[in-house]
Each structure stands twice: as C-alpha cells, then as structure tokens.
Amino acid sequence: MSDPQADEWTVTLVAYVNGTLGDDERRRVDEALHESPTLRAELAAVHTIAAAVHTIAAAASAGEPPASVPDSVWARIDDRAGAPLPPPSNVVALRPRRRWILAAAAALIAVVAAGIVVAQITSDGNEVDTSPSLPGPSPTSAPPGTATPLTAPAPQALRSASRQMLAARTARFEVSGEGTAHLENLLGRENVDVDIGVELIGDAEVDFADDGAYRFSTEFVGVSGPEIFRPERTTNDVIVVDGVRYSSSDGGPYETSDVGEVDGALFSAIVLRPDLLSRLGDIAEGEIVDLGVERLDGVEVRRLRFDLDIDELQLDTGSATAEVWIDERGSVQRARFVTADDIPDLDEAEEATVELTIDIDLVETGAELEITAPS
User: Fold this and answer.
1) How many C-beta atoms surround the C-beta of residue 2 within 10 A?
2) Are residues 96 and 190 in the same domain?
3) How far apart are CA 52 and CA 67, in angstroms?
4) CATH value at residue 359
5) What does the pLDDT look like over 5-15, one tens digit per residue?
6) What would the mean pLDDT of 104-130 be, rounded to a whole number?
7) N or C: which end of the chain has fewer CB within 10 A?
8) Which residues have C-beta within 8 Å of that of residue 21, sequence separation ≥ 6?
9) How many CB atoms lie within 10 A of CB 13?
C-alpha cells in the first residue's frame, strides 16, 4: 500500500521534472531537495521512470516492442499496482495493433500518478488512447549532479532527443543546402571534368505517428558549370502516405512507388525522409562527438556529431555525417547532414559524384497535420 504523503511528493516531483510548477512551489521543492537525501533519491527515480515512459511511448508510436526498462521501474510498478489513473487529457487515438504496449504505459502512470502519459482503454477493449507529454527536465532547477540534455552523456542525449521528436507526433521543418556535383570525362572526353554547384531550398512536414507520413517540397538550382549542364530551377514534391510515395517534378503528374524501394541515392535516403529525425539514435554509427554548448538563434543548444550507418539506410555506397543541435529541453532544433555519393545512371559522364550539406531547421512540433495522398 502506498504512503499518501509519498504519493503527494511523487506527483509534485513529476510536475517539477515537467517544468509545470509555479515559482513559489519550485522554490519549495528546491529547498526540500537540498535538505532531504531521500527526496533526491525519489527525484532520481522519477527521472528514471520518465526515461522509461519516453521509451515506451516512442515504441507505442512506432508500433514496435519497447527497449528494456530497468528492473527498479517494474518493482515500483508492482508496489503501486492498482493506484488510480488521472483523468484523460488531450486524448489521441492509436491503432488497435498497438494496444499491448500501452498496458505498460498505463502501469507507469500508476507509478508516477501524474500526467507524464495519460491513457484510457475503451469499454469494449478495441481501442487504446494515449497522449504522451514528454518535456525534458528543467536544467535550471535540477539538483546538483542531475544530468540534463545539455550535460547528459552524448549517446543518451541523442536517444532522448529522438524519442522526444517521436513523442511530439508531428513536426514542420525548413530545409536549405548547397553542394557540388563532380563529372569526370564529360561526354566521353578524357580529362574533361566539370563541377556544378547546387543549391537547395524547401520545407517539410511529417507525422511520425501515422506510419511515417510526410510531405517534402524542394527547389534545386545549378549555380555554376557549363550552360548545357546548368539546370534551370526545378521543383520537386514528395508525399508519402500509407506506405506509398507520390513524386512530382515541376508541377507534373504524380508518379507512385513503394516507400520501401530505395533508388540508391544517399541524398534521397536522407533528405527525402525527414522522419529519420525520429530515428537518429538508431542510425548513428560509432562515436558520438560532443562539440559543446553554443547559441543557435539566441537559444542555448548542445551540438553533437556522428556518422550515419549506411546499412541502416539500406544503401550500398556513400558516406554521411550528421550534426544535431539539442536545446535545454532535449528537443532537436537543427540537423545537418553532410553526404558524399555517386550519381547513378548519368550517361553523359564516365563518373559522377555529388557532395551536399543540408540543414533541416525545426519550425514547429506537435501541430495538427493532415497529410493526404494527392488527388
């Protein structure tokens, strides 16, 4: 049986972690944390539970089994089994095939007895609703020694940022980039090499929860090189809904293909899949380098750099490095991809490669989006 006074502190600490306490109440908690080792241990447990909820909510949105959850969390679930759930809030429907994972989320609610995740099972059992609300801990009020998104180990910060992106369900981005296409032995002439500068602008919106539905619109322009190979400004529009990719160039009719088909171009695998921002922790390869804390558009952010796993992107060639800027709440503000790859099926040149640097800047998360197939 749980202690009502302990329950009250648990609820307060959850609100403390979520950053939803008023200034006076936060000061009261700060003072209590300073005086009480037991309360600091309880806060550490709440952080652990919140991380587990991130894992489970992300798995629920992805329709996949969750990563491992610490035994200590399940022990607390057993201890608090049967605790009442808070009333549902901002309920968002999930597919019935994801019901099983939300039983674990409901158990975690019983542990924290507050709105980290709110779930409700309908009376006929055919649908489970959930509304994850997963803000990161407030770095300005965390007790000494508590890791924040600006100080946590780099792999942990990256995984947490990916889960937050997924938990937000939707996001809008602005995209910009530049690079160079290198053509060797142009038109069959030895030692005739040409470089063509490329610029890219665009925007994207993605619904991570709706099987990765997204829309991506771009404009390309060649800015240097012989006129015959200097393209005029071209537009591309890509929409993915229900596993089908719809592509249109320069306002022409949409052509369809299976979203699982990879055209072999590293550019397409990265730039035309903004939903990859919810998988950064999975596609990172090797060491994640911490480049330190800096300011981006007036906001304090932490910058991380890592290589991308080409195998995870289902590609055979090319190389790519990513950088992400994560703010104090653990949200990705910018992602930069630096890619190098061959240009397939270009008959005019014996060999063709392209190097690109693409910036994806976050505009908004959690907005209502409706991404539909083109008519």
Assistant:
1) 16
2) no
3) 9
4) 2.50.20
5) 544 566 677 66
6) 29
7) C
8) 12, 15, 29
9) 26
